[in-house]
Design a protein that fits this description.
It is built from three helices and two strands, in the order αββαα. The protein is α+β, with helices and mostly antiparallel strands and 93 residues long. The longest helix is centred in the middle third of the chain and has 18 residues.
């Protein structure tokens, strides 16, 4: 996950947290201000919010297109597609 976040920052997509450190059982990421849960979703309900949300998701998918996971990467789920055609999507948008 840290490799993905670093990659995204490297290609100019800064709307994800930046990894600061990973030590023992503690992960430290930069803070991104905003709302979550029902407060966040309430901003998506009007059409303008939905358009902004869809644009953010499209920009994420464009940014992640060139990412190649490290050989030792492990994911919560395995996917049948690998290689250049694979795309790491955000499964909980």
């Amino acid at each position: 996950m840290h490799a993905l976040l670093e990659y995204l920052h490297g290609v100019g997509f800064d709307r994800v947290p930046k990894p600061i450190r990973l030590a023992e059982d503690q992960e430290v990421l930069s803070y991104i201000p905003g709302d979550s849960g029902s407060a966040g979703w309430s901003r998506v309900i009007p059409e303008q919010g939905l358009r902004a949300f869809a644009t953010l998701l499209r920009e994420y998918h464009d940014a992640v297109r060139g990412f190649t996971p490290p050989a030792d990467a492990s994911w919560a789920l395995s996917y049948p597609v690998t290689g250049a055609e694979a795309l790491v999507c955000h499964g909980d948008f």
